[in-house]
Design a protein that fits this description.
Elements (H helix, E strand, L loop, with lengths): L6 H14 L3 H8 L3 H9 L6 H10 L4 H13 L2
Helix pairs in contact: 2-3
Amino acid sequence: MVTQLTSPIIEKLKAKQKELGISDIAFAKQIGISRPLWALVKTGKRGPGMKFIKAVMSTFPELSLDVMNYMANDNKSK
């Protein structure tokens, strides 16, 4: 489930996909994840796991700060 912490990251990824004008399949392939995983994260049915986070940071370094802030805040809540 997407939390308030992950929501800004997912919204930025959705915006990036729209900016690129590519399908879910192409976007997932660009990141290096499966299309079903992207669909689950995008719709909030699954939170981003470590593989997803690493893939996003590698593909979109400009989002790395957002991702690191999410990870730091997520660890504080545990």
